[in-house]
Each structure stands twice: as C-alpha cells, then as structure tokens.
Amino acid sequence: MLKLIARRLAVLPLVLLAVATVTFALTEISPFDPVEAYVGAESNVSTERKAEIARAWGFDQPLHERFGRWIGNIARGDMGHSIVAGGQPVGPEIVSRASASIALIGGALLLVLVGGLVFGVLAAAFRGTVFDWLVRTSCYFNTAAPSFWVGLLALYVFSIELGWLPAGFTSDPRSVQSASIDFDHLILPMVVLALTGYAWFTLYVRNTLLEVLREDHVQFARAQGIGEVAVLLRYALPNALIPFVTLTGTHLAELVGGAVLIESIFGWPGLGQLALQAALSEDIPMILGITLCASVFVVLGNLLADVLYRVMDPRVREAAA
Amino acid sequence: MSAAGAALRLRGGLTQRLVETARRWPTYMRVAAGVLALLVVAGLLANVVAPLDDTAVDLDHVLEGPTAAHPMGTDEVGRDLLTRVLHGVRISLVIAVLASLAAVAVGALVGVLAGTLGGRADAVLMRMTDVFASQNHFLFGVLLLVLFRPVLGGTGAIMLAIGFTHWPSLARIVRGELLSVRERPFVLAAIGGGASRHRLARRHYLPHLLPAVGLAFVLTVPHAVFHESAYSFLGLGLEPHQASLGNILADGQRSLLAGGWWIALFPGLALLAIAMTIGTIAEYWREHLHPRWRSELEL
C-alpha cells in the first residue's frame, strides 16, 4: 500500500511537468502578448518602454532558457505575479482563496456520494414503482440541464422570490467576520454544484445494483431465506460500491470545472471566481497557477480513490500483496 | 429481413432508409427525433420563422413577460426573446457541430497514430492522452479561450477550446478498436492473401472504426453545446450582442433581480431540449451498436 502511494506520488511531478510543458507551448504558439495585456490596450506606453518591460521579464532570452527558468520557478512554488491580485504573487493569492473552494467542492462531493447512494439504493429497492420513475426522471433532467441554468433558476426561486436563502458571498458582508463561511450561504451553491454528479451517481448505483441482483450469489442468499433488505444492503451493495470509488476520483475533476460556473453565479469568492476574473482580465500567470493547482488536486483525489479501492476490494488487496 | 424489405433497402435512397429505420424506433425515440428535427428546422429557418429582428431594440417594451405579441417576453432592451432564442439555437448548434467535428478529428488522429505506429510512439501518445483526460477540461478550455480569442475570435476560440479538450476518450477507443481488429481472422486472412496496406485500411479498418467515430461525434455535440453556452455565459465566448444561448442566459442573470425570470428560463429550456434529444438518440444508437462502450464514451 505504501509502495503504491509512493509510486503514485512520484508520478505527480511528471504529470505537473507535462501540464506545464503543454501550457508553456500553448502560450508560445498563441500571439497573446503579456506586455500588451500588462500595459492595457488604451495606454500610450512607448515602444521603447514596452521593450524594456519585455527585457525585464526576460522575453529577449531564448526559448529553452525561459522554459527552464519557468519550470524551476514552479518547482520552488513561484508561479509569477498576478494582475487580478494587484501585482502580488500568484501562490499566496491561490492559498487565500482555496478554503472557500474546498468547502464548496467538498460539500458538493459529500452530497453527491450520500445522495447518489441513498437514492440509487432506494430506486433499486423500489424498482418499477412511481418512486423509481421519479428518481430516474429527475436524474435524466439533471444530467442534461446545464448547471449554471439550474443555478440561475434556483437563485431566482429561493433567494429572490421566496427569500429563504442568501444570494451570494460566503457570509453576510455586513457582519464583522465577513471572511468566515456561513452554512446558509453555502447551501444553494453546494446543492446546485452537486446536482449533475448526484444524477450520474444515482443512475449508476441503481443500474449496477439491478445487474448485481441478477447474479447467482444473490439468488442463493434469497433461497436461504434472507430478507430482501439484507440481500440488497449486504449482498448486492458492496459489489456495486467498488467501481463507485473510482468514479468518485474522476468526478472530482468535473466538480473543479463546475465550480468556475457556480462560483461566478453565486458570487462565491473561491478559486473558480478567481479563475474567471483572471480569464476576463487576461491574467495568464493566475490561470496557469490555478490550472496547475487543479491538476495536483485531481491527481491527489485519484490517488485517494485508488487507495480506498484497495482497502475495499479484497481481490485487488490480495493480488497486490 | 423479408425479400421485399431487402429490395426496398437496395432501391431506397437515404430518406427511404431513414423512414425504414424510424419504423423500428420505440415511441420515446420518435419523440426525441421529432423534437430535435423541429429545433434544427426552427434554428435554420430562424430568419423566416421569427419575423422580428433579433437585435431590434424596442425601448417601449422593455422586460415584458410572455404575451401574445412576444410569446417568451422581451429582454432588458426590448428585444423579442423568442426570436433571440431561435437564433441562439442555430448559433449554438452550428458551433457545437463544428467543434465536435474538430474534437472527433483530433481523437481519431491520435488514436490511429497510436494504433498504427505502436511501440514507443504509442506509449508516448497514450500517456499524453492520460494526462489530458485527467485534467479538468473546462478550466483548460478557459486557458485556451484567453490565449486564442484575440486571433481566432470568439467562435473560433470556442471551437478550439472544445476540440482540444474533448478527444481523449475517442482516441482510446479508436486505438483499442484498431488493435483488436488487426488480430481478427478476416484481417489476418486478407493480409495472408496479400492485401495492400491501402486496401486493408479502406476495406477493413475504416468500416470498422467509422461507427465508433460517428457515435463519438453525436455524443460530443451535447457537451459542446454546454461548453459553448457556459463560456459565452461567463463572457469568454461570443460577443455579447450575438444571440447565443449562453449570452441570452447572461442577459437573464442580469435581469433576475428585476424579476425577469423568462429571460433565464427559455434559453435554458432550449439547451435542455437539445441535450436531452441528442442524448436520447445517441444512447439508443450506442446500445444497438456496441453495448460495451457505455463507460468508455461517457465524456
């Protein structure tokens, strides 16, 4: 187990190197000029001054030297300076925004897992009934409905019309501790972010359970006179759970992307909103920084899923041992 | 199939074959195909069907709810929402289809290269595919949009952002299918019979790969529609005055506080209809074509 974790952690720098290389190549191919973005389109900065800025940033040096220095800086945790953060370094700004995003994504992931399991099992248990039909229909709706559209509708209904929940920010901006995260501010963005994943997971659990329920060992358990609830939970569910864990790892990447949209709708001051601000003001260092951080996050999430997978599946555990 | 059916098949053109196929569809498929056809026709004929100018500003009728004159209401500068949504369906569908074609082209190219070159090139290409697949494609698309929107414009940059991020699953399938078909007895027989590489590719590999590529294309379209509208919604895609569904939803977000729920509701319903109908058709096709592809093609 430790060997697996060590091996996977050793891959992490390689993945980051690959991502950094691809993004560096893209910024090179692109005609995007960081100096122009820095001075702004309408400024009357002279050509000599622009050349001076370019020299100060090292743009006059050959490609391989710039690439090497950039990789070296990233390895030391220096991802450059950000425009949206007012010229401050990218790293600390990302760290200061991370907690809001982690709360949002973590909460949504929890909802996806719990909701998917509970409703998937219930739909399988009551297969063919009105309840099953309702769950499936709501899932098909949520897999097809764009999350930001659902977010807008939820915002209108629950915040504007009914006034049950606050419309944005992590807490009341008028309160003293406006940096803290209040639960009633978290509910709407968290639920909306979770809906797409919830739909996939519920359908997945339901369909896998129905497949497992047809297998011989389940028939045998039934023949022994074991109750249907116990058959479902003790004999069928564990088999359906194993791929569920791997799915969780891959779903983490989806949640990170969904957070960009949801945070912008609900004014949630996390990394997604920061990424959008950076994109709108063409702040390349910040976008690159967030992309790299998201990669680390997703790789670590997949590693966690792999470890859990081994803990849960005796076959894999013994094959590895 | 009966002799008459076979004769019909031989004689019939594309339309006739389509009708033949549609006869075997279950009801939900006919509904999905009907709604999709309606959307496509309405979008293509947006200029004819919707008589009003989609950019015509009418400041006497600002933010009006649905009425007989404006079935979907008007937006914050008095433009007819129905007209804009119809134009939006056209713009979004055209961009999504082109972007999906780009994604499928990249995926097929990488898959064919990996499958035919083999060895180290294959390993490098597939590791690259793994890295791409494990990235968050939405965030990566945002980076591509920022870098390439100044040269390619909103439409071109969106196609690039979608085409460059939605290919890994198809690349894996094409490579896998290519590797497996090469070991099949009929291909080995053809090789033994002295078939040229050209003939092998044209007669055996291509017919085997085309259904997978076609299906991947159809499955990518709803994703592309979502990404286009999401990028435009965030202000990273098309110009704000263009009637893309995402742009109209961004108008809707601004009008929510003024109570203009219809501007947020209707374009989203159009997106939902597109995603559900294409998704249903693709799913039906996949199940009949190749049940095993379920997990692999979920992009």
Can you describe this structure?
The complex is a heterodimer of chains A (321) and B (299). Chain A is mostly helical and 321 residues long. Helix content of chain A is 76%, strand content 0%. Chain A has 13 helices and no strands. In chain A, helix 5 (90-125) crosses helix 8 (183-212). Chain B has one domain (28-54, 81-293): MetI-like (MetI-like fold). Chain B has helices at 3-11, 14-23, 27-44, 46-49, 81-117, 119-134, 137-163, 168-182, 185-192, 197-233, 245-255, 261-289. The longest helix of chain B is centred in the first third of the chain and has 37 residues, at 81-117. In chain B, 43% of the residues are buried. The interface between A and B is large, with 48 and 43 residues.
CATH class of the largest domain in chain A: Mainly Alpha
Net shape of chain B: globular
Assembly state here?
Answer: heterodimer
Strand content of chain B: under 5%
Main beta sheet strand tally, sense and closure of chain A: none
Outline type of chain A: globular
Name of the CATH architecture of the largest domain in chain A: Orthogonal Bundle
- End-to-end Cα distance of chain A: 8 Å
Task: Work out the radius of gyration of chain B.
Answer: 23 Å
Name the average pLDDT of chain B: 81
What is the element string of chain A, with H for helices and E for strands? HHHHHHHHHHHHH
- Gap from first CA to last CA of chain B: 35 Å
What percentage of the residues of chain A does DSSP assign to strands (E)? under 5%
The CATH class of chain B is identified as Mainly Alpha
CATH topology of the largest domain in chain A: MetI-like fold
What is the tally of beta strands of chain A?
0
Helix-residue proportion of chain B: over 70%
